Amino acid sequence: MLHILYIIAITAEAMTAALSAGRRDMDWVGVCIIAWVTALGGGTVRNVLFGHYPMSWVEHPEYLVITAAAALFAAFIASIMTRLKKLFLYLDALGLVVFTIIGCQVAQQIHLPYLIVLFSGMITGCAGGVLRDVLCNEVPFLFRKEIYASAAIVTGSVYIGIEHFHGSEMLATVFAAIVGLTLRLLSIRFEWHMPKFVYRDEWH
C-alpha cells in the first residue's frame, strides 16, 4: 500500500512541478528535470547524506519515466490543472507524509539514531520542494509560514514513537500517516501558519 501511495505521490509532485517550470518559461527538458528533482530529490538528498545506495530511481528507472510523463502531461493540460489546485494541494499533503514515513524507514534500516531517523524523514518529505523552488528562483515553500516541515516532523515523531513503544511497523505507518495528513489538511483548510521572524533594522 505504501508503494502505491508513493507512486501516486511522485506523480502528483511531478505534475505540480511542471507548472513551476512553466512559470519560468522552461523548455521540455527543463520541465522534466524540475519534475525529477521535485518528486525524487528528497530521497536522493537523503541517500547521499547517509551513503545509502543505490538511489531509488537507479534501482527503479521506471520512476523517471513515470514522473517525466506526468510532468509533460501536466504541461499539456495546464489550463485544467489550475482549476484542480485544491486537489493537488491534498495530493501534495499525501506525498509529504508518505515520503516522510519512507525516509524514517530507510534510516531505521541502516540503524541510525532516533533523532537522525526523524531528520531523514523530514529531508525526504521536504528537500525535493526546496530544490524545485531554488532552481525556479523562488523562496522555498519550506521556509515560509506554511505548516509543512512541522507536519513532517510530527509525522516522523508519531511513527518513531509508536514503533518504539508498540513495535508494530504497520500500526506506526497507518497512525503516523493519519496524524500527519490530518495536520497538513487542517492547516490548509483553516490557513494555520507558523509564526514568522521579521527583522528590518540595518546593521550599517
Mean pLDDT: 92
Number of continuous helical runs: 9
Q: How many domains make up the coordinates?
A: 1
Largest sheet: none
InterPro entries: Gly_transporter
Domain Glycine transporter: 4-77, 90-162
Pfam family, one: Gly_transporter
Main location: membrane
How would you describe what is shown here?
The chain has 204 residues and is mostly helical. The protein has one domain. It contains nine helices and no strands. Helix 2 runs antiparallel to helix 4 (62-76). The longest helix has 25 residues, at 85-109. The chain is globular and about 50 Å long. The mean pLDDT is 92. InterPro entries: Gly_transporter. It is a multi-pass membrane protein. Its main location: membrane. It is found in: Cell membrane.
Detail the topology: elements first, then pairings.
Elements: H1 2-23, H2 28-50, H3 56-59, H4 62-76, H5 78-81, H6 85-109, H7 114-135, H8 149-166, H9 169-189
List key phrases describing it.
mainly alpha, 75% helix, 204 residues
Question: Brief description of this entry?
Answer:
The protein is mainly alpha-helical. The protein is built from nine helices and no strands.
